[in-house]
């Protein structure tokens, strides 16, 4: 499955979310980061208790990652309606924008803006990976999901947030377990590193006279894996951009 954030397929999924939750009696709010909040009224006013996750995916994977949390939350609304359940306070479902960070390179960026950890202007100006010119703001405008409601936990408060999530690794299956309770998540940092070398002819330049940037980068990748292993941590290199990209220089 491929549904990158703020793409045309993401707009289709967002439209489905809006239509479905509205039909289930929810009031729908879209904020300035495109986060969608669907709230089912309670007997009293107050901050809603939410379930949810995200509908965007990685470029070539993510059939359940995030999507399970949203569809399970929508099913929660159906169960409440089917059984005529009235809750003391509102309950809701949320679809966060660009949680994966696959297209715009900060994961959990829109929930980060909502939490007050990331400035709105910084998030709006994030440019898509791969050399494109689109920004988060330009794509929110293009697909019609740049909401007028401020992206803020003060404007859209939550009493609590629950998320059912598919495991992103093989541990549960390997240990023959059906469910795990999350107790923490990784602290992480992303780095963009420029490795500078010098162009030279591969057929006539000896190893002693080369300044091979890709060779240096490959050693850095290997070292990062060894360092992470020694520290009981994880590391990954996801994107390499090579210049000039010639076979004989």
From TrEMBL:
Any coiled-coil regions, as ranges: none
A Pfam match: Peptidase_M20
Keyword Iron attributed: no
Classification via InterPro entries: Amidase_Cbmase, Bact_exopeptidase_dim_dom, Peptidase_M20
Keyword terms, alphabetized: Hydrolase
Similarity section: Belongs to the peptidase M20A family.
Protein name (Swiss-Prot/TrEMBL): Peptidase M20 dimerisation domain-containing protein
Organism (species): Cryomyces antarcticus
């Amino acid at each position: 499955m491929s549904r990158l954030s703020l793409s045309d397929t993401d707009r289709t999924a967002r439209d489905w979310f809006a239509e479905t939750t509205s039909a289930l009696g929810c009031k729908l709010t879209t904020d300035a980061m495109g986060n969608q909040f669907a709230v089912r009224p309670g007997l009293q006013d107050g901050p809603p208790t939410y379930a949810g996750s995200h509908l965007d995916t990685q470029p070539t994977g993510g059939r359940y990652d995030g999507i399970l949390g949203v569809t399970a939350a929508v099913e929660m609304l159906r169960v409440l309606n089917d059984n005529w359940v009235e809750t003391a306070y509102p309950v809701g479902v949320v679809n966060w924008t660009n949680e994966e960070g696959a297209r715009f390179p900060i994961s959990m960026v829109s929930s980060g803006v909502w939490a007050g950890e990331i400035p709105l202007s910084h998030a709006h100006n994030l440019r898509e990976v791969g050399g494109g010119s689109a920004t988060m703001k330009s794509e929110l405008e293009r697909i019609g999901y740049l909401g007028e409601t401020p992206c803020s936990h003060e404007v859209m408060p939550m009493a609590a947030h629950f998320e059912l999530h598919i495991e992103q690794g093989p541990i549960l299956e390997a240990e023959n377990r059906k469910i795990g309770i999350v107790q923490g998540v990784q602290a992480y940092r992303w780095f963009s590193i420029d490795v500078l070398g010098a162009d030279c002819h591969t057929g006539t330049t000896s190893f002693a006279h080369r300044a091979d940037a890709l060779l240096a980068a490959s050693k850095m990748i290997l070292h990062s894996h060894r360092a992470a292993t020694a520290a009981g941590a994880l590391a990954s290199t996801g994107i390499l951009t090579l210049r000039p990209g010639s076979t004989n220089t």
